[in-house]
Amino acid sequence: MTQCFHTVKELRDYLKPLKAQGKTVGLVPTMGALHQGHATLISNSAKENDITVVSVFVNPTQFGPNEDFDAYPRTLDADLEVVAKAGGDVVFAPSPKEMYPSADDTWVEVTGNITKVLCGKTRPIHFRGVTTVVSKLFNIVGPTRAYFGQKDAQQVEVLRRMVKDMFFDLELRIVPIVREDSGLARSSRNTYLSAEEKSAAVVLSKTLKSALEKFKSGCTNLNDIISFTKTEIAKEPLANIEYVECYGLPGLYELKEEITAPALLAVAVRFGTTRLIDNIILE
Amino acid sequence: MTQCFHTVKELRDYLKPLKAQGKTVGLVPTMGALHQGHATLISNSAKENDITVVSVFVNPTQFGPNEDFDAYPRTLDADLEVVAKAGGDVVFAPSPKEMYPSADDTWVEVTGNITKVLCGKTRPIHFRGVTTVVSKLFNIVGPTRAYFGQKDAQQVEVLRRMVKDMFFDLELRIVPIVREDSGLARSSRNTYLSAEEKSAAVVLSKTLKSALEKFKSGCTNLNDIISFTKTEIAKEPLANIEYVECYGLPGLYELKEEITAPALLAVAVRFGTTRLIDNIILE
User: Fold this and answer.
1) Tens-place pLDDT, residues B100-117
2) Which chain B residues touch A20 with a CB distance below 8 Å?
3) Which residue intervals of chain B bear CATH 3.30.1300.10?
């Protein structure tokens, strides 16, 4: 069974002699409820590093007051098995008090458009929570490489900016979206979906794929691509669109009339009470 | 002559092989215009570490719009000599563009009372600038120990909180205030003072010393100590008090009627256009 540490001290005591020997360390930050997407991050890390640390922490500061912090699935025993099978070495599963030791918080916040568009509009404190907890994990682990999924495309861009601005001495490794056979992007929140909703949610990946084909075949007009994506998704009666947006990469810069490759086409759509995100890179 | 690097890459290339050999690194973050106070920080670091890095960077983000960023003394050649004499090994003197590579900033901010009292009242963005630049320097250098002066007592408490909350893996070393023979606390801003103002400014250290004696002799009432300090300083016609405040240590917690040791008695006072700070620990 994978070793599991709950305190910063235990984890550091474990890592210190290994680092002194010059061993490389991969970090896979997660909120647990591990699925095949996480397993891919872990196995990539295991291939590229001597030691792989998987953090399992449902980070309270990245949830808004009306979001699903309490409902978020917590499945530590199953997670330990996923980590072991994928080749991870240790799990770090701290308590909120361990990660947030003070009554008032110290925040790490990326400012500018990059945190205001897409999910930043409806989840105004989300990315501040993400950058804060990821900074803490970087400082605790001191990884050689850190692994994140392209599924959270905006998070990836925000973290790239943070690593650059704050001079974190590590390499960000971004792993492509892992999908179910149906095309549905793997997500811990998929467990919230009814069978009917889950089948309806396939419209997201299907539409994004069609949008990419449209773009590749020469349709590079921003409004056309956005309208097409909205229209296709809206054909699914259970889909309730929060946003369909497209920004330039890297950095999520604003596009004018034409889409310049590479660009991120990203969607957030509710199925019942469950909010799903998905994206594709137009290039 | 001391080596001086201007880019993060140069400094890291220099430090990397030394760290691989297990050498310890002391970091002394400064804004230059080095005086005997800085020299003491540097020589302390040189005693306790294999390598001492002194950063010289007038950090724009910790100055308010009407503060002395442009006027702040910049004396790199003289600074290099001070560093060499005090036993420092290298100077890191980056440009603002090197330290702030993005158009929008990534901030590290300690929230709560600790950054709102004392200098936080009149310098609302100051500590956010300090914690941001110090975080960057910590990530760039990866020091074993970092050295700061007790002169900036609130900065010390804010940085302690940041190091704890963000899990920086280093030791903060706080060095007592270095004073001129007159008692005046050494500060780069002392160069702004006229001869008359400089002589008047001695009232600060003299009064703080008397307040400590009063406290030690049994006067532990908060209002009495504050009034005494204000009254004594106000006897100096050139002194223009910004604040005289007293908070519990560690963490600058609010005191009620009685002062519990250890507590920080801190003052900010203008002499002409020059704002000086000084403090003493009541214990």
Assistant:
1) 999 889 999 999 999 999
2) 22
3) 188-278
